[in-house]
Design brief:
The chain is an alpha+beta fold. It is about 25% helix and about 25% strand. The protein contains eleven helices and 31 strands. Helix 1 runs parallel beside helix 7 (about 280-300) and helix 7 runs antiparallel to helix 8.
Length: about 475
């Protein structure tokens, strides 16, 4: 849905094929976003929709330490607790405002690509013809497999059951750690009935329990959940009437390539990992925002297909590092006294200021740095959401990105920057800003005289009282100049 929104904002004809019958997700599933993902939604002017239904909190953790990031230079120095079914409902309402077609109740069964496009085979109805196909179809991606893209990584060593169930007995709420692993029971604050959110004080209980032995790949049953609960709590609390039951493991894999011709991957179809750190949803959303504007420019003929190669060049290393950290977190959670000693040492280090900032920067996504070459510290990093003064008054920088268009923000002498050959693609904004420039983790940086901001909010060029390198950056990211 995020990718569809990005493409629709860029005036690209886009359709979503969804195997579910509607946008209502049964069960709560994943539990929120970290700071950079909230910023990404803020760049599109929709963050308030999610903030209104979630709860902000300091929940980024490493080992057993909560990484307080309230001092980070961002408007959103926190994580947002909000269930995935709420997220998907809000997303669906947003893209309903955009020209996005959704084919509900359809499943992609295969595809065939040629030099000009892709024929997408559906389980129900005629095939679709598209210029490009993006697989956002999860860790067992049909599209990734059909494209022949390898999925190397690490096999699972542990598994967890997660579910929402009714309980005849009063459950033992809270987190428990034992020689099996980490477990948790908590009340579900709401249920979805007929597409509406209904809040309640009782009702279903959300269960997360570590299995003593690695579970099978088959769909888990209520009996398996009962056995796992009894092994940990001595009772299954009389579980019945499950809303949903699922199993996840610490399998960690990343696609060897994010693109095969006209077929691309994003989200869990490109990478899977244990949910330690809670980065899964955010990584997928940020994949979509990195890819969307690039794909739109290629489809529109503004940029060559080679621009799509920068999607993997940028996102693959970022995700690889995130996977490394989720594996480290998973290792520190193992129920072993020696591992606990290590976790205690790591937690002590994580409570110190410099390690705290580094780890929180990674988990929050605020320290992402795409390698765009040597230069100013801003180059390749996310643009701060500054309050700037323009001819139209005071504006936030993120307000300039609501339409997903690139911006050349001139902070020097008015009229000092000329981008006439790219004026049809890039907004030129003369503005002033007198405050300090501070980046997460890095700290204070020298104030630039101009910045070229990509639609995804990352800085593609930094000015230093000259326009040196600007034409090259404009051409690289937004296509060749229009002839005079």
């Amino acid at each position: 849905m995020m990718l569809a929104a990005e493409l629709a904002l860029a005036k690209v004809d886009v359709a979503v094929v969804e195997r579910r019958p509607d946008h209502v997700l049964v069960g709560s599933r994943a539990g929120g976003f970290h700071s950079r993902t909230i910023e990404v939604l803020d760049q599109r002017g929709v963050a308030d929709r999610f903030l209104a239904e979630g709860q902000v909190a300091q929940v980024a953790t490493f080992a057993t330490t909560v990484l307080d990031m309230s001092d980070f230079p961002t408007r959103h120095p926190y994580s947002l607790g909000i269930w995935q079914n709420q997220i998907e409902r809000i997303m669906a309402a947003w893209i309903a405002e955009l020209p996005v077609r959704i084919y509900y109740g359809c499943e992609v069964t295969g595809f065939a690509q040629d030099d000009s496009g892709v024929n997408v085979d559906l389980s129900d109805g005629p095939s679709l013809r598209a210029q490009y196909l993006v697989g956002c179809d999860g860790g067992r991606s049909v599209i990734r497999k059909a494209a022949g893209i390898e999925f190397p990584g690490w096999d699972p060593t542990r598994s967890n059951l997660i579910a929402e169930v009714e309980m005849a007995e009063e459950p033992e709420l809270g987190i428990r750690r034992d020689d099996i692993g980490i477990h948790g029971l908590g009340r579900v604050e709401y249920v979805i009935r007929d597409g509406e959110v209904v809040y309640n004080d009782g009702g279903p209980v959300r269960v997360m329990v570590t299995e003593r032995h690695l579970g099978p790949t088959s769909e888990p049953t209520l009996h398996e959940l009962s056995e796992a609960l009894i092994a940990v709590y001595g009772t299954d609390f009389g579980i019945h009437s499950p809303t949903w039951i699922s199993r996840f493991t610490d399998m960690t894999r990343q696609a060897a390539a994010y693109r095969a011709g006209r077929v691309l991957l994003a989200g869990d179809s490109a990478h899977v990992h244990y949910p330690a750190g809670g980065q899964g949803l955010g990584l997928g959303v940020q994949d979509a925002v990195n890819l969307g504007w690039k794909l739109a420019q290629v489809v529109g003929g503004t940029s060559p297909q080679s621009l799509l190669d920068t999607y993997q060049d940028e996102r693959h290393p970022v995700v690889a590092r995130a996977l490394q950290h989720t594996m480290a977190q998973t290792a520190l959670q193992r129920p072993d006294e020696r591992i606990q000693a290590l976790a205690d040492v790591v937690s002590e280090l994580a409570s110190m200021d410099e390690p705290r900032k580094r780890l929180a920067g990674i988990i929050s996504g605020l320290d992402i740095h795409y390698d765009l070459g040597e230069g100013h510290p801003l180059l390749g990093r996310r643009m701060p959401d500054l309050d700037v003064v323009t001819a139209d008054g005071r504006l936030r920088v993120f307000e300039l990105l609501h339409d997903a268009k690139p911006v050349l923000l001139n902070l020097g002498e008015g009229g000092g920057v000329d981008i006439t050959p790219w004026a049809d693609r890039v907004q030129l904004i003369d503005a002033s800003y007198k405050g300090a420039w501070e980046l997460p983790v890095l700290g204070a940086v020298t104030a630039p005289t101009a910045v070229l901001i990509r639609p995804d909010g990352y800085v593609a060029w930094v000015g230093d009282r000259t326009q040196r390198g600007l034409p090259e950056a404009l051409t690289t990211w937004f296509g060749p100049p229009v002839a005079a």
